[in-house]
Design brief:
Blueprint lengths: L2 H25 L11 H4 L10 H15 L16
Length: 83
């Protein structure tokens, strides 16, 4: 083979590699939802986004103080005072 043929194959190989990688990433989204017996693991405290209630309360206080608004995290009302 000549060197010019090798140069033309490199972009094709890269494109095929990227296509294979993209198909692997997309196939991860096609998983089945968890079964009933698997949901017990998802209900553990460690699996929550905020597992420390004190830290969550502090973060909410900082957010409300900076934004001058409250609500949107499970409580009714907004910053305007209309509950």
């Amino acid at each position: 083979m000549t060197s010019s043929r090798l140069l033309y194959r490199a972009p094709t190989r890269i494109a095929l590699l990227l296509l294979a990688l993209a198909s692997q990433v997309i196939s991860g989204c096609a998983m089945q939802p968890p079964q009933a017996f698997e949901k017990g693991n998802l209900a553990k405290r460690e699996m929550t986004l905020g597992s420390d209630p004190l830290e969550d309360a502090f973060n909410q206080h900082v957010y409300f103080s900076k934004e001058a608004a409250s609500g949107g995290t499970g409580v009714g009302g907004g910053g305007c005072g209309c509950n």
